[in-house]
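User: quick one - fold this with adenosine-5'-diphosphate bound?
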Amino acid sequence: MIRVGLTGGIGAGKSTVAKTLVAQGAHHIDADRIAREVVEPGTPGLAALVDAFGPEILDSHGALNRPALAARAFADEEGVKKLNAITHPLIGARTQELTAAAPADAVILHDVPLLVEGNMAPFYDAVIVVHADAESRLHRLVSLRGMDDADARKRIEAQASDAQRRAVADIWLDNSGTPEELAEQALQVWNDRVLPLRENHSRGVAAPLPTAVVDADPAWAVIGTRVVNRLWALLGAGAKRIEHVGPTAEPGTPAPPVIDVAVIVADDAAADEAARLLYAGGFPVIDAEGGVTPARTHGAADPGRPVRIHLRVED
Ligand code: ADP
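Assistant: Sure. Structure tokens for the protein plus adenosine-5'-diphosphate:
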């Protein structure tokens, strides 16, 4: 199973991408839908909200009146905390349940509008960001979805910035053209990236690394941070230090575009456990080529993520 996160600003075009990938066989898990389901009438979620915020948050049919809840929950920080403490665990549990129910070879497409805001990017095998500039999003929301102009502006402003989304994007889809062009890009991502990633992951092999030297790219530092964050999410307290190292970590030096990362662990047992987690998380050992690859070197199953992980026991 591999997990792909899909995000983008409101009105960016996530639905088009989700539809295209689902038609190819992706297993869609929709965070917005789950968020609604866990507070439907008759759920423990809705009962907990009523306990916390009062029966005034219900409409005359006993369903959640969202504006009424928002007026109470967003009034102060305490309210937001209370709301999140009720809904987040329920959403998390339901997401887990749906993920666990998917077939072992599934590609889970987790559609999460607030993935960046929730710092969730490191928990996916790959993150797809759909991008359209704020003006186009506003225009589409108002003219096509019939949203109120001021409301649409407010929601766009409250969300993450393009730069924040760019920083976590393993795959960036530009939706400044037609919906058909976006669908075409999504299909290409599925064929050239997602399917090879799943194939390599299930076979436990790393994608080949580029060897040709290229000019230094400022994006290397950004990718380095992304990989380091992903590895922290996978290894947690099992690692003592995780650092972007090597030529791509040195500003200005031409090199093959391979992100070298050092993972330092306490002892041999921790290294064995880290190796197991790396393998399970899509970072299999790089096969020794003529015996020249040192032990405990991992690559990535993802053909679009050229990394070399040097797993070391602290001196
Ligand atoms: P999201 O799911 O990211 O919030 P949608 O996929 O629903 O956004 O797109 C928002 C609106 O813009 C929809 O009405 C959709 O049909 C329309 N739309 C999406 N992409 C384009 C595009 N490239 N050109 C014109 N309209 C688009």
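One thing worth noting: The chain is about 45% helix and 15% strand.
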